[in-house]
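Journal club prep — side note

Before the paper discussion, L.F. wants everyone to see what a predicted structure for a comparable chain looks like in token form. Sequence:
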Amino acid sequence: MIDDIDDYINYVFIEKKLSSNTKDAYLNDLLHFNSYLKNKITKDVTYDDVTSYIDSLSDADSSDKTIARKIVSIRTFFDYLMMKKKISINPCERLESPKLKKTLPKVLSEDEIEKLLSLNPKSAKEYRNMAMIKLMYGTGIRVSELVNLEINDINLTDNYVKVYGKGKKERIIPMADVVTKALDEYIKIYRPTLLKGYLTDKVFLSSYGKGITRQGFFKILKQLFKEVGIKKDSSPHTLRHSFATHLLENGADLRSIGEMLGHENIKTTQIYTHLSNDKKRKDYELYHPRNKKV
């Protein structure tokens, strides 16, 4: 099965132009599946094999979200083999994914954002951290887009950033003056001190002079949340969701928000209307005089 997996991974990465992170997720899922089947020949894999594997994941207390993702990886793999006529029956044809509970993303309040942005940077790394935070909250870009940014992707004159999202699709996102100022200061004054003799176009650098990683940014964000006393989820997604929600609450058009976020379907962006409506209801219950109990 290994050769078929390699062919499929090359297909999704080169022809389908999926991101490196998605490619790696598919690869890990399929290798885990292959290991469970003990290198069984692809054409011999049956529906019972797949369901047995899914049951083993449940027995190991894997989350519904993890199981659903692995099912997608396996199903699309066999869809590819069907397309290439390497198999005649898809063993996943009757397979159903677990129903996932819809959970609203965590969002910071505007006061919490102010706390985060009120940190006073002193070192090169702290100026880098502040520039990253302001850019993420100011544009709603994904963490993968943040760490892959290169110098030429940022236009400090016309106040915009160019990012390459899912499927390598390019989009232009405007930046507020406060974001541009933070980037300008970091790039011109502090970034050169972090290079450590390396030559790289990556905007945000680690202490070793190379591009900062997703894991590195996660750790930075977790520490910053701790410093200002924010107890909510310190995921980069929290900044992205806060960007979208605050724009919507202040009157921005849903379609414009979706374009800035890189959503292909307006339905993906509509989750933020639920967040906004939830806040409105809480404000109503808290402040409306007719809502006070007698």
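L.F.'s comment for the group: Strands lie at 154-155, 160-164, 170-174. Keep this in mind when we get to the figures.
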